[in-house]
Amino acid sequence: MTMPETAAEQATHERPPAPLRTETFREARPTIIGPDTPEPPFPILLSGPVQKGFGRGGKDLGCPTANLPDESLPPMSTVTQTGVYYGWARVSPHNAEGKKVLSDVDSVVLPMVMSLGYNPFYHNQQLTAEIHIMHDFGSDFYGHAMDAIVLGYIRPELDYTSREGLIEDIETDKRVALKSLARPDYESYKNDPHFML
Ligand SMILES: Cc1cc2nc3c(=O)[nH]c(=O)nc-3n(C[C@H](O)[C@H](O)[C@H](O)COP(=O)(O)O)c2cc1C
């Protein structure tokens, strides 16, 4: 059996085009994903200051994302494939200058979906890790420290013929993540020491 290339290996090779999303894929999507207990390579712990992406996530897709800098990606790129992942994330209430900007309800551990890849729909050339936290934040939090625990893989990244198709899949990703995280052995990671630092 050949192992899938890791994201780091993919970054150094010519990348094959991402598969186009099909109706069959949409209809066959499970509502809960992964084993009942996270298995290696999960959990994967990530940390870094939140960076601005191209800004299309919020405006174009109704799905704002907090990007992690390249320096934060090695734990991900050495072990896994590009695609959509799920887990938990927490944003520090303090900005880069140490001022408290976010309220306490915004800085608890929250469910997230993460896109790791090249966003074929937007033809990005660089690998990015974009985390969408499923919560309505009171304000922006660029520059804030963010910690995340990745617990599972949802699907490969796909190319789309329409923005609506991508939006529909992201909505499904969120539902799948919430259901998958509600299992006790996933829920318990909300209290992981990674979030107490
Ligand atoms: C859960 C999730 C799944 C995504 N899946 C895909 C995908 O399959 N294909 C793709 O091209 N982009 C995908 N994206 C990435 C969006 O294209 C990306 O968030 C968008 O380009 C906004 O980036 P920006 O804020 O840097 O502009 C996904 C994003 C999220 C949050």
UniProtKB/TrEMBL annotation:
Segments of this protein annotated with the region Disordered: 1-23
Cellular component GO terms held in the UniProt record: mitochondrion
GO MF annotation, one: ATP binding
Pathway: Cofactor biosynthesis; FMN biosynthesis; FMN from riboflavin (ATP route): step 1/1
Domain Riboflavin kinase: 44-182
Class in the EC hierarchy, top level: transferase
Keywords, comma-separated and alphabetical: ATP-binding, Flavoprotein, FMN, Nucleotide-binding, Transferase
One biological process term in Gene Ontology: riboflavin biosynthetic process
Short name of any one Pfam family annotated for the protein: Flavokinase
Domain of life according to the entry: Eukaryota
EC number assigned by the record: 2.7.1.26
Keyword ATP-binding assigned: yes
The protein's role, per its UniProt record: Catalyzes the phosphorylation of riboflavin (vitamin B2) to form flavin mononucleotide (FMN) coenzyme.
Family from the record: Belongs to the flavokinase family.
PANTHER family found in the cross-reference section: RIBOFLAVIN KINASE (PTHR22749:SF6), RIBOFLAVIN KINASE/FMN ADENYLYLTRANSFERASE (PTHR22749)
Name of the protein in its database record: Riboflavin kinase
Native species: Cerrena zonata
